[in-house]
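Our platform keeps sequence and structure together, in a single record for each protein. Such a record has a labelled line for the sequence and another for the backbone structure tokens. This encoding replaces a full spatial description with a residue-level series of whole-number codes. Below, we set out a record of this kind in full and without editing:
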Amino acid sequence: MSGRARPQPGFSPERLAFFTDAIFAIAMTLLAVELERPDDKESASVRTLGSFLVDERGSYVAFALAFILLWSVWRRHHNLMDRIGRLSKTFTAWHAPFLLLVAFLPFPTALIGASIGNPLAQTLFASTMAAMVFCEAVLKEIAGGTGPAAGDPAETRRHAGDSWAVGLWFVLSAGVAWVFPYAYVLWLLAPPVATYGGALISRLRTVPAGHPDPHDGDTPRT
């Protein structure tokens, strides 16, 4: 008999990881497919091609932002799946909305490319990213709470705090977009928000409600 039990049919971590990788690869490729190509007239000379490229600059900014954000989400999911020893039904089921949002992201990206300063376009993009990252946070909570993750479950839940913080940051940016046309710049701050916001959320979760932090008010001993 082999020392390692085979997973239940339909709950192989490797198959889920491969499928997720494929969805991310397709979505990231579609970001480039959505970029407008110049026609024969627009590419006839350096001047007309240059004008076309300048006119489409919003599309290139949107492509770069979406690609970087999808890449970061994929890397975090990759790290999570490397910790998964077995799948649960809940963990597997939550991949459906998660991957739906990944596959949908090229659409709001194309809208931003067409009108990057449009607050509705920015709101749709930010809302999609927020929902996606919230799903990522739920996956980490499940992995750390019910045991699918190998290693330290508490560490996996601490990483969930990073995702909650980033999701809230995208929600905030969606509101800012209606008063500031360059709100999309806030999306570039997602990494430090994950680091510092996640640490704050993790600290708040470890302090029981109604009980002060035992370190607050400490005075140095003489």
